[in-house]
Structure formats: C-alpha cells, structure tokens
Amino acid sequence: MKIPTVLSVLLSDAELRGKACPGVNSGYGLAPWRCPVVRLLTAFLLVVLLSFSSGCSGAFFVGGAINPNTQTVSGLITVVHVSISSDGSFGTIVTFVSSGAATSVNFCGDQHSQFPMNQFVQASFNPGTPCANLIVVVAG
Predict the structure, then answer these.
(1) Domain segments of the chain as ranges
(2) Residues 35-57: pLDDT tens digits?
(3) Global pTM?
(4) Helix segments in 12-112, DSSP class H
(5) How many Å apart are CA 78 and CA 38, to the nearest integer?
(6) What does the pLDDT read at residue 7?
(7) Helix, strand, coil proportions of the chain in percent (round to 5)?
C-alpha cells in the first residue's frame, strides 16, 4: 500500500478511497477524514495556512459566539444601587437573595431598570474587573 504524501492528501483523496487508512488495519472507505492521520495533517496545515495568511505580524484573530465564562445568578432582588466612579463611569450593584443566601454583583453601566425590586430575577453575565457585563435578564 502506498502511503499518501501531503500533496496527494491536499490535492485528492483518491488514493485513500476504498483502501485502509495508512497505519490502521480497519478500512475507512469513502470517509478518509475519519482517518486520524488525515485529520492531524489537515489541522496542522490549517494552522500553518492561518499563520502565513496573517501577514508580517504573525498574529490572527479567531472569534465566535461561544463564551465559556458566562455566569448566571438568580434570586429575589433586595438591593439595587447605582454608583458613579471617579472616572465618571456608572455601575449598578444588585443583591440577589436565594435560599437565605445573598449574592451581590456589580454590573457595568446604569442597569437599575433591568432589576425590579422584590421580584425573582435570573441574570446572565460575563464577569470582569471592575464590573460584570450584563448579557440577559429574565424577570418572573
């Protein structure tokens, strides 16, 4: 069996069709991307391509909608306090009470209208310093 070179993997997967994956005894047939060797080569070549396409700086940005740092807090709203810092920016400190425990969160900006007093509220946010960025508030 001939092991495909990097160029043959890039240009065509014809050598892998109907044959076993190089170095693996089970056949992958018409699905060569399931072969671990092909997947690793593809990932490596993609990283190299992105590195060269970023120009002289060698830096590139990969963004998305997934944010693993999102946190959620819920409870009865007992305190809402809008404050202003020395640099002129606003912050809203909100206290949630749930099962007898109080949790306070400092949100960026004037968010007091989002938190009705004495109502149960669930808020999702991205924690940060000095304040958390509010994503969504559900009152009910």
Answers:
(1) 6-57, 71-139
(2) 666 677 777 666 665 555 555 44
(3) 0.52
(4) 36-53
(5) 57
(6) 43
(7) 25, 35, 40
